[in-house]
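User: Need the bound-state model for fe (iii) ion:
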Amino acid sequence: MLKIGCHLSSSAGYLAMGMDAEKIGADTFAFFTRNPRGGSAKQINEADVARFLELAGKLSISPLVAHSPYTLNPCSAKPELRDFAKRTMRDDLERMEFTPGNFYNFHPGSHTGQGEETGLVQCAEMLNEILPFSGTTTVLIETMAGKGSEIGKSFKQIAKIISMVEMKEKVGVCLDTCHIWDGGYDIVGNLDGVLTDFDKTIGLSKLCAVHLNDSLNPCGARKDRHAKIGEGQIGKEALFRVINHEALCKLPFILETPQDSLAGYAAEIAMLREAYKH
Ligand code: FE
Ligand code: FE
Ligand code: ZN
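Assistant: Bound-state model below.
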């Protein structure tokens, strides 16, 4: 069975997300652990989490792929911003223990002029400080499009970060199809080659989740503008090959397409389930 879902709003709590997932036919989903722009997190309501876990168990909704606020920058040139990223992620990981055994995905950051090498080192340093507090959660580094001074735009850079991490068993990778396409990986013409490259550089055993998005821009554009499935330059057929590829087909797929309603996601999920051949 295809594991698929989308980003859901966490503003009404966990049970509400579980009910939204059920409504749209999702059996996995992503959510922001707090306001995506950072800021303080809401107190977790244990009764709400308990009701959610019961529903998720009944419907086999798993795993959760939580997303850190995208404004956190673990490799900012400003030490106070690096420190803020670290403290926020550590707090998020403590909160993740209310829903144990899931994924927490983050953007490796932008080096803001310090250079890629420094960025990679600072990202690994942050991971080394927070992973001892990650409990049962696996922390996922997201592949990035490489806009501005973003690090993590190549498999090599991500492998480099992981090579400097002490608790390697606690980190994985989340592959974003829009981002790698924008980063120059031709998943339309050569999906096998891209995945072989991933395997040789990082190792497919590290790949834990996929963000399934089309892209408004051509391969290598480094823009990071998501499109609905089939309405971008990657296209429906190539994304159908992604969900059906033997190296990927068992992973959770999260849609981050620009839909303005849950009904839009429900339709995309139904279309992808229809295209799933396993
Ligand atoms: Fe992301
Ligand atoms: Fe993403
Ligand atoms: Zn993106």
